Amino acid sequence: MPDHPPSIQPSPQEQREHADPGESQTPIPRGVVLLVAVLILWGIYYIARAPINIPSELGDGRTISALAGRKGGGGGKADGAAIFSGQCAACHQATGQGLPGVFPPLAGSEWVRGKPETVVAIVLHGITGQLTVKGNAFNGSMPPFGAQLSDAEIAAVLSHVRSQWGNAAPPVPVELVGQVRAATKDKTSPFDGDKELVPLK
């Protein structure tokens, strides 16, 4: 009796099968390697040549002190148009026409052209509920900006709004914003639309 079993010959079906695939190294194309090397060298050159010892300025020539002034700091004058673009235009639109039924227009608005104390209070504390503007009801909401904007910024943006899109109301003094802020400091919620604001017209 043999010490080991006879070898088993593969069947014809097994003989037709290909060998199992195996991993092999696929080199990165030389063109890709060259491109990456060129980009790295260009990045090093760009960083090394970048001026870092000159005063910081934006491309339009505004200096840091000018930008600080536009934000209402550094003793500069706040830019009402820039504040409107950044804080108000998304709802009231760049044209001041608002969105029907949701965000009221500022163009020709009796609130904008009315008592400056009232419009300052609106910006400080916001509005919720129905508000009637130019005979149309709006049911959106306006967030309060009293914590976000300084007195100078509120005065600047309101003065801007009161002089645009056919509005011809006087500018809002910074001192008035401070007075309204102090007089309404205990108000902790937005105005309830027409219910609270109509008496303040």
Task: Describe the 3D structure.
With 201 residues, the chain is mainly α. It has a domain at 78-200: Cytochrome c-like domain (Cytochrome Bc1 Complex, Chain D, domain 2), CATH 1.10.760.10. The protein is built from nine helices and four strands. α4 crosses α7 and α6 packs across α8. The protein is elongated and about 110 Å long. The model is unreliable at 70-75 (pLDDT under 50).
User: What is the end-to-end distance?
Assistant: 117 Å
CATH topology of the domain at 78-200: Cytochrome Bc1 Complex, Chain D, domain 2
What Rg is obtained from the alpha carbons, in whole angstroms?
34 Å
Approximate helicity band: 25-40%
Can you tell me the overall shape? elongated
Main pleated-sheet profile: 2 strands, parallel
Task: Give me the secondary-structure topology.
Blueprint lengths: L11 H5 L13 H20 L14 H7 L9 H8 L1 H4 L23 H10 L1 E2 L2 E3 L2 E3 L12 H11 L12 H10 L7 E2 H5 L4
Parallel strand pairs: 1-4
Antiparallel strand pairs: 2-3
Helix pairs in contact: 4-7, 6-8, 7-8
Q: What keyword list fits this structure?
A:
about 200 residues; Cytochrome Bc1 Complex, Chain D, domain 2; two-stranded antiparallel sheet
Question: What would you say about this model in short?
Answer:
With 201 residues, the protein is mainly alpha-helical. The chain is 40% helix and 5% strand.
